[in-house]
Amino acid sequence: MFNYFEQQRDVNVGFIDQLLMSEPLPAIAGEFMELPAGAPSLVVKDETYLTTGKMLAFSKQYYDYRRARLFMVKKIR
Which of 15, 28, 30, 41 has the highest count of CB atoms within 10 angstroms of its CB? Predict the structure, then answer.
């Protein structure tokens, strides 16, 4: 997706902020995961910014704490 924006829309992705946290599960996500509202969950929030500082995309994803497995790879230029 980011390649499309950079090649077709002439914009440059500057950086992505990611935040990993725990949070009580909201009712709508709990219904989907078949967990009660308020159950513990892992949350990943992403915010993608252009080199101009303008936000391009964001997301907030809930994960079932019972099936959590964390693995991160960081690329250093």
Answer: 41
Query: 6-63: per-residue pLDDT in tens?
Result: 776 677 888 889 999 999 999 999 999 999 999 999 999 999 898 888 898 899 999 9
Of 15, 41, 14, 17, nearest to 27 by C-alpha is 41
pTM of the predicted structure, to 2 decimals? 0.69
The strands making up 55-64's β-sheet, listed across from edge to edge, are 13-24, 40-50, 55-64
CA–CA gap between residue 56 and residue 48 (Å, rounded): 5
Q: Kind of pairing, strands 40-50 and 55-64?
A: antiparallel
DSSP track, 36-48? -TT-EEEEEEEEE
